[in-house]
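Q: what sequence does this backbone want?
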């Protein structure tokens, strides 16, 4: 996907919905469910049938605070091999959720068209070079090794984005290929995740599309206790407010329900 088609995708007069497909044994809400390739492909089809605009495929859990088992590039590719090329045939763009440039390059060669880097080009320096070479859109997500409750989280996110954008443009990647994501639940207290959604509009100062991924995350249970697979109400509330505050893309496990909620919210706004 080049610069023109990212712009085309974002020019749809509604927020975009990114459907999550985790080909992992240990993702926090759906670990193990889609490790079997047949199940994964069936889930990809369901997400597309439900209306996903983008499929985000990951083969390494990014669970914060070192809770996820690190996975080698070889293992990530082994998990992706029976799934990603088939998912890329389903008619919607595929993003590859990886922090490794080698895995991203492999995926771009097999039909993925967007790079989703939860370390915002700051961990694997090959990532920015790869995106520039392939003219691939990149999602730059804010992240920290450890949450610091004393931080002004919006200032930290803005400084991090500035650093990532410096790396991107330094490698020759056009700013217009970048989507920014405050990284809900990553290196943040639950309150800081709430703040990132409440004050999302401040990040519009970068003049780039914003993505928010709140789906089933732990901050929801801090507000209203529930296990990961029973956080749909909280996920939808968070995504509706994120869109009201400027998000162009929301990342969710529950595509059909999220689209319904977004449509109703848009219809209510439309009769005002
Ligand atoms: N969240 C997760 C993974 N990747 N990418 C972006 N851009 N934004 C996010 O908020 C984000 C992300 C974590 O969610 P999930 O994929 O369900 O879990 P896991 O990382 O455990 O597989």
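A:
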């Amino acid at each position: 996907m080049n610069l023109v088609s990212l712009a085309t995708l974002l020019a749809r007069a509604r927020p975009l919905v990114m459907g999550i497909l985790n080909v992992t044994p240990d993702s926090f809400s759906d670990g193990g469910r889609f490790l079997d390739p047949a199940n994964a492909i069936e889930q990809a089809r369901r997400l597309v049938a439900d209306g996903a605009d983008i499929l985000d495929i990951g083969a390494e859990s990014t669970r914060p605070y070192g809770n996820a088992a690190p996975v080698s590039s070889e293992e990530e590719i082994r998990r992706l091999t029976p799934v990603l090329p088939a998912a890329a045939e389903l008619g919607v763009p595929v993003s590859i959720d990886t922090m490794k440039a080698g895995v991203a390059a492999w995926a771009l060669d097999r039909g993925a068209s967007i790079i989703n880097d939860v370390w915002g080009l700051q961990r694997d320096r090959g990532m920015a070079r790869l995106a520039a070479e392939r003219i691939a859109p990149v999602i730059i997500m804010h992240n920290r090794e450890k949450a610091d409750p004393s931080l002004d989280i919006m200032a930290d996110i803005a400084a991090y984005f500035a650093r990532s954008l410096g790396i991107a443009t330094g490698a020759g990647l056009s700013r217009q290929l970048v989507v920014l994501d405050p990284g809900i639940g990553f290196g943040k207290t639950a309150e800081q995740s709430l703040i990132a959604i409440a004050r999302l509009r401040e990040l519009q100062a970068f003049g780039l599309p914003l993505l928010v991924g709140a789906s089933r995350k732990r901050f929801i249970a801090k507000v209203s206790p529930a296990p990961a697979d029973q956080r749909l109400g909280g996920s939808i509330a968070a995504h509706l407010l994120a869109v009201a505050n400027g998000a162009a893309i929301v990342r969710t496990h529950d595509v059909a329900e999220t689209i319904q909620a977004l449509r109703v919210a848009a219809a209510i706004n439309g009769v005002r």
